[in-house]
Structure prediction request, 452 residues.
Amino acid sequence: MWITTAILALCATGIALFLSSTSKLEVPTLPETNWGSNKNEKASTEIRPFKINVSPTVLDDLKYRLAHRRSYTEPLENAAWTYGISSKFLNTILDYWKDKYNWSERQALLNKYPQYITNIQGLDIHFYHIKPTNLPKDKNLKVLPLLLLHGWPGSIVEFQKIIPMLTTPRPNQSFVFEVIAPSLPGYGFSEGAVRPGMASAQISVILKNLMQRVGFKRFYVQGGDWGSVVAANMAALFPEKVRGLHLNMCNSMTLSNFIWLGIGTYFPSLIGVHENYSLFLPISKHISLLLNEFGYFHIQATKPDTLGVALTASPDGLAAYILEKFVASTYSTFKESNNDNMVGKFTFNELLDNLMIYWITNSSTTSIRLYAENLSSTYRALKIEQLPVEVPTGCAIFPKEIFSQPQSLLRNRYPNIIHYNIMPRGGHFAAFEEPTLLADDIFSFIKKIQEL
Prediction:
């Protein structure tokens, strides 16, 4: 039996080596497409101050919809969240949204940091721009530009707690950050494209141009979820612009890596997994995840506009769809829990702040179109996600992340990993869940680059 297993392992190893030894890909030059409706007009390069200011009419309409929602089917006995979101939990948070959530207070909180809008490639792009304050006069601190990127179903709300941690000087560090945190194009207060083709690499072009617009020729980038994909593509396409890349969702989604995960399931030492086996393996865990939790990915990648209609029409539908993703990506045992008050690391106010960004900007459809653009045959033919990232890279591996890979496999795409840290706790929404851990890791990573 062991001989058969060994032969299979050797065959699989050979296949993996063959698949991973492809010729070096050429870095394409992506056009700076005008994605806006005024395609033939030259837009202003002005950077305009911005404040969130929602009309009372929008708020009254939202409250009316919440008050007149239909009743939901009761969950099956002892089913917990195995069929999706618990309608008991949903009713609890929707009642809070209707009766106790104070938007005027939350809007003031979201307006705490300076915000701006500027037109890049035909689209109005919204961003926070926070400079450090109270810099000590007796210490020659470097101020380093850091681009922070969110994903779906998140928003700039995710960064509210981590921003002051990054922009406040630390006694043991010789640098501090100047943070630029945009809403991705199509998300929140940033406009979405009016024509097909704006995938993650095209977004990286837009955000590279945003950084140049605000005055930075070179900068650091940090991202999670789609933000990690956009950030990695930016580093691959514009290595002369990116000083360092920090991700809290480091992945290299190649066929050879999945074959190696299969081999590593039985021979973990071959892929450098001597500890933390359960964090990366067995491969059946990843297959189970794909089958059970990625149905949303397929519909968003194929029929985003159909789904967008439902999310646009109903605040309770939007809440059910997005909150289920937050719980699934944060709590590994949520399906078996009958706790109908699952808040944990997020307060109701924080979860609803994020929902409000999608609701008041009507950006459900434009945000989820990113899945369809990234999975289109035209975009996949560019092989952007296979380009090597040569810039110094740091990976923060949070144990409850939806999918994690060992460092040996990540080097297929990130050959210059100088920082790989398995975190003590936390999941997919790292900046939102564990801002202190993430901020500490960003400082540690960039300190290594500064020392180099």
